[in-house]
Amino acid sequence: MRPPVRLLIIAASIAVFSLDGVGTLAEPVTHQADAATSYLDVLDLHGAPQTPTDRSFNIFFDTGSWHGYSLPVAGDPATGFSGPFVHSLGDGQWVGARFARLALRDTTSKQSITLSPIDSHAAPGYLVRQFSGPGLVVRQTLFFADSWHALVRIELTATTSRDVDLSVAGRVMPQQQARLVKDGDTVAQTFANSNSKLTTRLHADGAPAYRVTLSGADYRIALDHPLHLKPNQTATVWVEQTLVYDIHADKPAHVDIATAWTQNRERWGNYLKSVTSSHVAGLPDEVARRVTVKAMLTLLGNWRAARGDLHHDGVVPSYSNPDFNGFWSWDSWKHAAALAQFAPELARDQMRAMFDYQAADGMVPDCIYLDKAANNWRDTKPPLAVWAALEIYRATGDKAFLGEMYGKLVRYHRWWFAARDHDHDGMAEYGSTDGTKVAAKWESGMDNGVRFDAITMLKNGNNAWSMDQASADLNAYLYKEKLDLAQVAAILGKAQDQAQWLKEAATMKTVVQTRMFDKTRGYFFDAKLGSGDPVRVYGSEGWAPLWAGVASPDQAKSVIRVMLDPSKFATFMPFPTLAADDPHFSPIKGYWRGPVWLDQAYFGVEALRNYGYAQQADEMARRLVLDAKGLMQQAPMYENYDPLTGQGYQSPNFSWAAASYLLLLQKRERNGLDLTL
Question: Which residue ranges make up each domain of the chain?
Fold first, then answer.
């Protein structure tokens, strides 16, 4: 009989597991408690894919990984995890049905050891499953060491000395043609029409060899020697799964298993430090904090590392929607503003990823992908980039980042007036590079907004077209950009630039106030070119001037009266994107014709705060949290919500909804706006 393998035992591994009073496995004493244990199962991460494209449940990603996993369905007695799901393969698909399934056999009795599930949880930064067998407790913890490597730490604690044979197994999706090969002691899985490769290996300290067995869609990796378990000591083995996007270009470094878990806990501990600042008056802090953690999990679950033609890390809108496998510019600015509060380097990279593709004329594309041939240059998205850069600076004090971005931000801002001001009156319009109405509507971010139903396209020049109406939100954003650029210039010591931006802002303020505010209706509307006639559609764009601070106090008072009207915008879940009394109001299937979109709702709350309506702002913020169905339970954050019922619709796990909730709940210094600017 070969000698037992000496297993990799974590530092101070004399760690006894115990059962707590409700029959769940307590943390071993060597595992320091961290903030993550206060936020177990914020999202339900149980599920098993029925097809390779099944996105009917939530998936765990971290550190920018392009592969993710889930806990098996509740009650599944087998060990291991569902997955992986590979997001970079086509529009994303499950390539594995089960990963890290554990098999144990007692070497004395030659009998398999049956393990019974105790419990399973999703915590910030890891998934954990716990099992018991005769005289044995087993714990499996899945986490990411970095964007390339997923690790499963398998800890075994026996009550008496014993030797066991150990192996781990996996299965590819039955609907896929298995392309498994042995590569030494590693299992490699490759894919048709792809340069990607998924490798799986087992790690055990002192193990000289492993046995790899392939059988159809199944694989197994076994320790070549028995595993010796000492009484009441925890032995640990590791399973590593690595996804390489392009085997010809990507050379990921080897993961340091000895430090990976500690680094994971330190990283997540730093993320969670900011949770304590979550607060809205009248809302229990524990509710605000739990929703903030859900927002963090959503944003980091959609984080994808630089691969292919994406040169910096960023956040996709939602892994749950196969149409969202890239980075969008409008989304990116919102993601960056929220990420700045807890993951500032990712926030910076999110902005860099989009500006990597800034054109010579200053335009930033609508969206970018792993394959740049798919990038959308038909339009851009509303100008919130300077706002996002300043949010990063406010959170970090990173002056160098502002210096890096300033010239790019200036070029992007100037592009709007060069390419989207048809009549050269200092007011911009949404438009497109190909002259199509659909791309112009996309550029607004409010794709099918009622205010665009009767637009005509006007040619400005080569690859530059405008709608025949100037939009209230667009020009409010551009006004704010001038003020924000003035602030950036001041921080960078560019006094002359600062003065120029302030001068331009003052001029634009007068134009917005006089040409876009309808005194008879007390609201801001888009204005038709030529006639100046207002496009009298009551939408969320009408309070964008209050968020930007371009409205006068009297104008703001009138707008807020409309915002707080229960028949229009103060609905059950407040601030729909179209007034509830509009004949086109369609909150369930309307997309931008009535649902609550959290970015616009957040801007609405901030609009109230900007003009001194703090009590009303707090009330609306509370309702946005309390009236969104499932938000305080395990439901994901949705793309938009029904303002009449609070039911979520469209894409679950939506990043800008998460970003908006996080910003909504952050307790920050509010000095108000200087309305004299």
Answer: 35-266, 278-665
Q: At what angle do helices 614-626 and 598-610 cross, to 10 degrees?
A: 160
> Residue 603 — φ and ψ, nearest 5°?
-60, -35
Q: What are the pLDDT digits (tens) for 340-393?
A: 999 999 999 999 999 999 999 999 999 999 999 999 999 999 999 999 999 999
CA atoms within 13 A on the CB side of 529: 21
Question: 526: number of CA atoms within 13 Å, CB side?
Answer: 26
Query: Lowest mean pLDDT: which of 53-62, 125-134, 241-250, 661-670?
Result: 661-670
For 487, residues 6+ apart whose C-beta sits below 8 A from its C-beta are 390, 498
Q: In sequence order, what DSSP letters do the residues of 77-133 get, joined into one string? A: -S-SBEEEEETTSTT-EE-EEEEEEEEEEETTT-PBPP-EEEEEEEETTEEEEEEEE
d(CA 154, CA 416) in angstroms, rounded, equals: 55
Task: Output the CA torsion sign for 661, 665, 668, 674.
Answer: positive
Task: Write the single-letter amino acid at 434.
Answer: D
- Residue of 3 and 367 predicted with greater confidence: 367
Q: Which of 575, 610, 613 is nearest to 594 (CA)?
A: 575
Q: What confidence score (pLDDT) does residue 221 get? A: 97
Q: Rounded mean pLDDT of 643-671?
A: 91
Given a contact cutoff of 8 angstroms between Cβ atoms, the answer to whether 643 and 587 are in contact is yes
Across the chain, how many H-helices and E-strands are there? Answer: 14, 30
Predicted confidence at residue 27, as pLDDT, reads: 42
Strand partners, 236: 8, 155
Asked if domains 35-266 and 278-665 share a fold, the reply is: no
- 511/470 Cα distance (integer angstroms): 12
Q: How far apart are CA 475 and CA 530, in angstroms?
A: 17
Nearest-5° Cα angle at 573, 567 to 577: 65
Asked if CATH classification 3.30.70.20 holds for the domain at 278-665, the reply, yes or no, is: no
User: CB of 325 within 8 A of CB of 374?
Assistant: no
396 neighbors 344 (Cβ within 8 angstroms): yes
- The CATH class of 35-266 is mainly beta
Q: What is the pLDDT of residues 58-115, one digit of tens each?
A: 999 999 999 999 999 999 999 999 999 999 999 999 999 999 999 999 999 999 999 9
461 pLDDT higher than 70: yes
What does the block give as tokens for 317?
């809108």
Residue 99: burial class (beta carbons within 10 Å; 0-12, 13-18, 19+): buried
In sequence order, which residues have a C-beta less than 8 Å from that of residue 132 and are 6 or more positions away? 25, 115, 116, 118, 138
Please tell me whether residue 259 adopts helix, strand or coil conformation.
helix
Q: What average pLDDT does this structure show over 516-529?
A: 98
Helix (H, G, I), strand (E, B) or coil at 260: helix
Query: Which of 14, 40, 19, 39 has its CA nearest to residue 29?
Result: 14
3-state secondary structure of 157: strand
- In the chain the first and final C-alpha atoms are separated, in Å, by 84
pLDDT reported for residue 672 = 52
Q: Are 643 and 594 in contact (CB under 8 A)?
A: yes
**pLDDT band at residue 260 using 50, 70 and 90 as cut-offs:** very high
